[in-house]
Structures are given as structure tokens and as C-alpha cells.
Amino acid sequence: MADLDKTASLDRDLQPLTNPQLPAIGPVLAAVVAWGAAGLVALLLGWNIAGWLVLGWVAFIVVLPAWSSAVEGKRSAIDRLVTSLVWSTFVIAMLPLIAVSWTVIERGAPAFSVEFFTSDQSGVIGVGGGILHAVIGTLVITLIATLISVPVGIMAAVYLVEYGKGNRMSRILTFLVDVMTGIPSIVAGLFALALFTLLLGPLPRLAIGGSIALSVLMIPIVVRSTEEMLKLVSNELREGAYALGVPKWRTITKVVIPTALGGIVTGATLAVARVAGETAPLLLIAGTLRSVNWNPFEGGMATLPVLIFSEATKGGAKPEYVAAQLERAWGAALVLIIIVMGLNLLARVVGAYFSPKTGR
Amino acid sequence: MAKSIDVSDLNIYYGNFLAVEGVNMTIKARQVTAFIGPSGCGKSTVLRTLNRMHEVIPGARVEGKVVVDGQSLYDPTVDPVAVRRQIGMVFQRPNPFPTMSIYDNVLAGNKLNAKRMKRAEADDIVESSLKGANLWNEVKDRLDRPGMGLSGGQQQRLCIARAIAVRPQVLLMDEPCSALDPISTAAIEDLIHELKSEYTIVIVTHNMQQAARVSDETGFFNLKATGEPGHLVEFNPTKKMFSNPDNEATEAYISGRFG
To answer: In chain A, fewer beta carbons within 10 Å around the N or the C end?
Structure first.
């Protein structure tokens, strides 16, 4: 036993605390070597740029770990391999995002003009006019959808977390919310269409119907996100309020919801951003009106996604009409992305503003 | 402004599980009563039944009687919210409301109940409660700052200030010092001594020296055996309890020879 201890401690004594390391510029060198060699091979075999990039990447994730393994040892080699793979997946994930943003900005920006934002499409054939009617439609329909779904969603989540607590009713509700999350948006549109067909007769065109279809899609998102936020509020706070003789409903409205408000607002705003780009349900019920309509209870409304769809798919008598319509569609797409991105930024700002402050 | 509590034949259940069995005791007004005993023996559970806070836990129910100055707490006509307004509670971990300033935290009991009061009256309550909790000098210049920005010991004293701001008859404290350093603990023990003149105080503690220092009467809880319900082994004046206890198990626990 004593011998064993001795050898073990000798081994430990021999373990160095320093290891040889690749120079800081090592990964760059490996990249240059890998893509350089791949370039030669690609030139010889007559491959295109994509082939060269892929071959270079394969060479890189072989060369760098191999070099590291020779100099630094096995653990560092694995570390470098995994680091390279993680960075690669990050780049792959970013590619479509950058490509889409670039394309939309490149093609959509030329459409921007004063006329584009201040006039609608009434009486316009092909060239000219703007998308004001669709911007107004998107804002009005989404606003009403938000006004419907946020209160319903928050109250449903309050029931689930504060009152239901896993009883039969709340389990059924949770299941239904999960099912609702998976409803395809066209089905939500059909629901609104069927509802207003019953009320108004065949083929109704009503903007409020679009709001109702969107709120069918929004409610489960709001319920889910609010539920998670309410669960995060610690029971100690609730008990602290109860111990002061505060009734349950006041505890919920004055302590629990304010504490979770940042997260609730963020969740609701993200839900808005998610449905602002819905096309199918709005195409079914809100239609493709070509002029400004502020009244959601009378007639349809154009919205940005529907306008993009119709402008991009409709033909024209002359080639320049088709070109103008396509440009208008790209411009509308850029406006939609800006609106959604603005909502996301707003969600972050509002979330940070409402979240509890530590004062440190 | 202080009341005594009579507990008789109290059984506490979580669902079908009998957690605490057959508790009888009288908690005297304007005295500090300490509950000691090993973990899981039901001290906190008994404490929570004194202001019906156990009802927050699903499935918890009680049999027996808890009588505060002649009024049975578990009478069907008694409103638990009204009970908690008279019998305040301080928890193991400080739990100031994170959305509120120090000022609003102290007034939480009034504000959350939408009680209207004049600014001067509110200021008075805040000042007297914070002074009562020995916190006034440390925070008087930053009352509008968030309560979460204070240190742990200050937060706990803020919670005590919040509890006494609603002028309860009884103050229940569930291991109020277990998350605090010795200096904050000493501050809170001093505070308990001062509050004794106005409030009936019941404190659960794992620290026997603390029980000996702050309390007038002590109750020792224990489990009969593993898996059996907890029960009250002995309830006596603290002096007697720590010098000449009636029960052997009490002596063994207090002297550190547990078993």
C-alpha cells in the first residue's frame, strides 16, 4: 500500500503544469494552408468555388487538429476540432439570414420613394402607386389581433399557473393549447372564413376576420410564454404577500404579474412579430383590397404579406408592369422585415424596462 | 396589541400523510416562543398553521384547534386573509418584492390592499417600521432605491419592517437568521428583544444558542421514528429547558447527543 502511494505521488510529481502550445496565429495558418491546398486541387480538377470551399473546410478540420495533436496533445486536438465544428455550424446558420437580408435590401430598397409610402394601389395598373394601404392593413389587423389575444392569453396562463395547478381542467387546457400551437395557419384562416360565412353569407371579406384568425395563432404563443414567466416567479414572493394579509387576486395582479411583466411583454411582442408575416389566413378572409381602408368592420384590408404574394404572382400586359410589380413586392418585403425587426427590438427594450431592478 | 395562542390536539396532514400529531401548547402574549428540533420534524409546519399559511400548500389540512384570544382560527366563518393581517410572518429567506422600492416594500401590506392614506401618514409608517426593524439609519437616504439592492441581512430586516408595518398582533418567524451572517443575526436578535414588548413572537430556529438567547419559552419537536409523524416532545420555559429539561430526549438533543 505504501509502495502504491509512493509511485502514485511520483507520477503526480512528474506531471507538468505547462504544455507546448500552437502559436496564436496557428488556426489562421492552418486555414491558409488548407484552402491553399484545396485551391490547387480544385484548379487541377476544374472544380467551382463551392467545391473549393467545401474541400478547404474538410482539409481545415483535418489539418488543424492533426497539427495540434502533434504539438499540444490529444485533449487540445479534440478541443480545436470541436471548436472548428461549432464555428462552422454557426457560419452555416448565419448564411441564410445574411443572404436573405442582403437580397431583400438589394432588391427592395430601390422601390422606396415618397410615393411608395404615401399612396395606395387604387386605379394603378402596373407602374406607380404605393403600399400605404397594406402597411395600414398590417398594423390595424395585427393590433386588433394583439388586443384580442394578449388579455385572453395572459388570463389563461394565470389560471393555469395560479389556480389550475395541475388539476383536470388545467391539464385539458394545456393539451388544447399545445394542439393550438400546431394548427397550420391556413386552418386558422378557414376557421375565420367559416365563422363569418355563417354570420354574413358566402365569401365574406372582413378585416376583423383576419384579426380573429391571427389571434387563434397568437393565443397559444402568449399562453405558453406567459405561463413560463409566471412559473419563474418564486413562491416565496407569493407567500410574502399572503403573509401580509393580501388576498390571492391582489397578490397575482400586484406582485406576481408585475414581477414577470418584462418576460410577458417580450413574449407577447414576439408573438406579434410571429403573426405579422402570416399570409394564408389573411388571403382567405381579409382579401386583397387595393385602396386604404381604416375600418376593420367593413370590407377587407390589404396586408403586406398578401400584397407581396399577389404582386409577385400576378402577370401584366407589358413586361415593365411585371417588373414594377416585382419591385413593389420586394419593397413590401423589406418594409415587413423592418416592422418585424422593429417589434423585436421594441420587445427587448420594453422587457429590459419592466424587468425588476436590483439597484446595484 | 398582542395576543396569546392556544393550540390543542393539533394534527396536520399533507394529503393522507400525517405530518405532525397531537400538539398542545399555549403561546403567551408579549413573549418570545422558540421551536427547536431536527429537520423535518414539523416545526415550520406547526408555525404555518398558526396563521393558516400552510393552506398555500396543496393538500395540507389540519384537525384540532388553534385559538387566538378566544377566536378559533379554523372556524368555517374565519377568513384566512383576515387572520394573516393580524398574524404576520417572516420567512427563512428574505423575499422583498423585486418590483418595489424600499419605501414601497415597507408599505406593501397597505398598498397591496389598496388602503388609501395620506403621504405624511405613509411616511410615518415607513419611518417607524424601519426604525423598529433597526434599518432606518442604513436606508433613510435611499428609500426610493429597489429593495433587492440591499444586502441579505438588510433585506431580512426590510421584510421584518414590512411585517410590522401592518401592526400585526403576532409575528411568526421561520428561521429568520439561517441565511445571514453573525452580525446581521445579532442585529435581528436585538430586534426580537425590542419587538417583544409589543408583539407575541414565535420563532423557529436550528440554532440552540439562538433559542436560548432570545426566547422565554421553548418547544422541542421530534420525530417518533423515521417515517412517523413529528410531535411536540416538551414545552417549557427556556431556562428550565436548557438547564433541567423534563424529557431525556430533549436533554440529548440540546447537549448534542442526539438519539
So the answer is: N
Rounded Cα gap, residues B48 and B87, in angstroms = 10
- Summarize the confidence of residues A231-246 as an average pLDDT: 90
**Record: contact B145-A238, CB cut-off 8 A:** no
Pick from A234, A238, A244 the residue to mutate for testing the B interface (most B CBs within 10 Å). Answer: A244
Closest Cα in chain B to A250: B112
Q: Where in chain A is the domain with CATH 1.10.3720.10?
A: 115-354
CB contact under 8 A, B95 and A254: no
**More reliable by pLDDT, B204 or A300:** B204
Q: What is the mean pLDDT of residues A319-333?
A: 89
> CA of B209: how far to CAs of A174, B174, B212, B241, B256, in Å?
50, 16, 5, 12, 12
Q: How far apart are CA B106 and CA A227, in angstroms?
A: 29
> Which amino acid would we find at residue B2?
A
Q: Does B8 touch chain A (CB under 8 A)?
A: no
- Kindly state the greatest CA–CA separation across chain A: 99
Contact check, Cβ <8 Å, A240/B99 = no
Q: What is the pLDDT of residues A149-185, one digit of tens each?
A: 999 999 999 999 999 887 899 999 999 999 998 889 9
The mean pLDDT of B89-102, rounded to a whole number, is 90
B101: DSSP letter: B
CB pairs under 8 A between A and B: 92
Nearest-5° Cα angle at B229, B26 to B59:
90
Q: Out of A5-19, A63-77, A161-175, B66-80, which region has the weakest mean confidence (pLDDT)?
A: A5-19
pLDDT at A21: 82
Q: Is A168 on the interface with B (CB under 8 A)?
A: no
Q: Model-level pTM?
A: 0.81
